[in-house]
Amino acid sequence: MFRNVAELIELANEQNVKISEVMIQQEMEVKQKSRSEILNQMEKNLEVMEKAVEKGLSGVKSFSGLTGGDALLLQSYIQKGNFLSGETILDAVSKAVATNEVNAAMGTICATPTAGSAGVVPGTLFAVKNKLNPSREQMVEFLFTSGAFGFVVANNASISGAAGGCQAEVGSAAGMAAAAIVEMAGGTPSQSAEAMAITLKNMLGLVCDPVAGLVEVPCVKRNAMGAANAMVAADMALAGITSRIPCDEVIDAMYQIGQNMPTSLKETARGGLAATPTGKELEQKIFGVSLGTSE
Q1: Closest by CA position to 143, among listed 130, 164, 128, 156
Q2: Which whole-number Å values give the CA distances from 10 to 1, 2, 16, in the listed order?
Q3: CA of 156: how far to CAs of 116, 117, 243, in Å?
Q4: Which of 34, 97, 98, 178 is the most exposed place for a label (fewest CB within 10 A)?
Q5: Do the Cβ atoms of 244 and 198 come closer than 8 Å?
Q6: Which domain holds residue 198?
Q7: Residue 97 lies in a domain
Q8: What is the pLDDT of residues 240-292, one digit of tens each?
Q9: pTM
């Protein structure tokens, strides 16, 4: 059993296995299930993610009308070929948005690590799939690797927006994705940890301020930026760039920042973008009443 990133990397290096294998072994031990049972369950999660991406890219709208259709718009933009950033990054962004648009439309998604941050891991996975051509088994391993880092964050800090702000949700998801991308691209366990650290430390302090209390604005677009952050951090780690602050210390810092963050910025819809004039107008339009006031 590993308790932090340092122990996770140590186990992977000692056993000369990938991080995903360490996580699979831990799941087998903790849940007292066979390898095939653990892999089959993750395969089911992968199928849910895949269907959500496909549904989102077909175009969906939320019941509130706040979100929907942006993933499709971005795919159309990519097809025109005039984009400024990389195609793989934009594809990851589009597929992350697609997943969260499905969530906002009350569709089925796989929380990674939460529903509000469910787009980053599948968004990046199905984008790098087109670049790296992984086997189905490697795609499942991608999820175990991201889960290993999510496990550490959940047990040493938080993955809850209500407890730690959006840094704990989209920040964690982006770090998880970055680490998994590195492994799929052939990087070392240590490089996965560096990618996680680089990603997360650049999302520290991100607040959770859902307009009208709904997981739509700015949540969907934050998943988009989380996906882009993960892709760039993975490339940096694969290039040999390291984080001056170790991954576990970055996670600890996130926890402390979350503890010091005011409640108005932790999923209460009482501060940040939710408290702007337009945010309040949208809340009034949707519910006919203001649900809260800023502090």
Answers
A1: 128
A2: 11, 9, 10
A3: 20, 18, 19
A4: 34
A5: no
A6: 5-50+134-287
A7: no
A8: 999 999 999 999 999 999 999 999 999 999 999 999 999 999 999 999 876 55
A9: 0.96
